[in-house]
UniProtKB/TrEMBL annotation:
Main location: membrane
Coiled-coil intervals: none
One matching Pfam family: MacB_PCD
Membrane topology term: Multi-pass membrane protein
Species this protein is from: Candidatus Falkowbacteria bacterium CG23_combo_of_CG06-09_8_20_14_all_49_15
Family the UniProt entry places it in: Belongs to the ABC-4 integral membrane protein family.
Swiss-Prot/TrEMBL keywords: Cell membrane, Membrane, Transmembrane, Transmembrane helix
Name of the protein in question: Multidrug ABC transporter substrate-binding protein
Lineage start: Bacteria, Candidatus Falkowiibacteriota
Residue ranges crossing the lipid bilayer per the database entry: 239-265, 288-321, 327-351
Length: 368
């Protein structure tokens, strides 16, 4: 799900993050380390068309979480301080009003644009344009409302209040550095050249002489690289979970086989009596193989139900901490799980069933 969402962001996007990074690892800032090496002036320098000819536009961010109030209504939401290029780069559409301009951004104007969720939570069905909202004792005028966009890669684009970047830095966050710069390139084929141009500009601004990247205090990543990184992680996780599932099935299958062998031993007289009454070896085999499959099928159904419940509770817990995670139940996965558990019963129940079917009626009836 996350992989598809990241792909949907666009193949011509580049992310510039503060902090160095290993070649195959995430940037330091992604790991929760506060890095202050990217500034507003860096973002302005990247807009130089002479040095960065393939750049269409960029948006720089400083983000936080805060309480927003209107009259008696209060709502805690994501505060996104950004530059005026947000709609062009991120593809956001303004449903009502307008987005703030570069001039308002430079002048530290106290204006705000609401995401659709933030607007609904604060204003309900009431119009928001022209109204005054308060964030940390500062009053902002609502000049726009964004169209509903939904959730992408655990980020809710609708549950946000957008403020001019420098206003956010000075009045709300109290910082002078950036958390992220996202740039849009004219063509996906020019990504590598654009990344090289941006890297050169930032190295020059930061006084970095080493061109190998070993001393870079920033990270430049394309959306394609993000997809590759997520693919590697998901492939590794998928292999690990498959190995754990296979091991669990083997261990569970051995347990089923032992239970069925004990069952055969305890029901030897019953088997002999059925044979004396006309049951064939095939009838005895079918009886015990059916019991083994029934046990594993019931176990699979209970396990699937518990897994669905845990997934639902996990989605609720993740949402409680401010992240977005859709709860999705795949019918194919449930059918596959039940089929595999039934096959496990069939495989590991074969030997006990065959042993039961080979018992001699006379010896079985004499068994104590």
């Amino acid at each position: 799900m996350i992989l598809n969402q990241v792909k949907s962001l666009g193949a011509n996007l580049i992310g510039i993050m503060p902090g160095a990074t290993e070649k195959d690892g995430p940037p330091a800032s992604v790991m929760g380390i506060n890095i202050t090496t990217l500034t507003y002036e860096d973002a302005r320098a990247l807009l130089d068309k002479k040095k960065n000819s393939h750049l269409l536009d960029l948006v720089a961010y400083t983000k936080s979480i805060g309480l927003v109030s209107w009259q008696s209504n209060q709502y805690s939401t994501n505060l996104s301080g950004c530059t005026a290029g947000y709609p062009a780069v991120e593809g956001g559409e303004v449903e009502a009003g307008r987005f703030f301009t570069s001039e308002e951004e430079r002048n530290l104007s106290r204006v705000a644009v609401l995401g659709s969720t933030a607007k609904r939570e604060l204003f309900g069905d009431n119009p928001a344009l022209g109204e005054k909202i308060k964030i940390r004792r500062h009053v902002f005028e609502v000049i726009g409302v964004m169209a509903e966009r939904g959730k992408v890669a655990m980020q809710d684009y609708d549950d946000q209040v957008f403020l001019p970047l420098k206003t956010m830095q000075k009045l709300i966050a109290g910082v002078d550095h950036l958390g992220l710069i996202r740039a849009k390139v004219d063509n996906a084929q020019n990504l590598n050249q654009a990344m090289a141009d941006m890297t050169a500009i930032l190295r020059e601004r930061h006084g970095i002489i080493d061109q190998s990247g070993a001393t870079d205090d920033f990270s430049v990543r394309s959306a394609a690289e993000a997809v590759d990184m997520i693919t590697q992680v998901t492939d590794g996780l998928r292999f690990f979970l498959a190995a754990m599932a296979a091991l669990s099935l083997v261990v569970g299958g051995i347990g089923i086989m032992n239970i069925m062998l004990i069952n055969v031993a305890e029901r030897t007289r019953e088997i002999g009596l059925r044979q004396a009454l006309g049951a064939t070896r095939l009838d005895i085999f079918r009886q015990f193989i059916f019991e083994a499959v029934a046990i594993t099928f019931a176990g699979g159904a209970i396990g699937a139900a518990i897994g669905i419940l845990i997934s639902f509770l996990a989605a609720l817990a993740i949402g409680h901490f401010g992240y977005q995670w859709d709860f999705i139940v795949s019918g194919y996965s449930i059918v596959l799980a039940l089929a595999v558990t039934s096959l496990t019963g069939l495989v590991f129940g074969f030997y006990p069933a065959a042993k039961a079917s080979r018992l001699e009626p006379v010896a079985a009836l004499r068994h104590e």
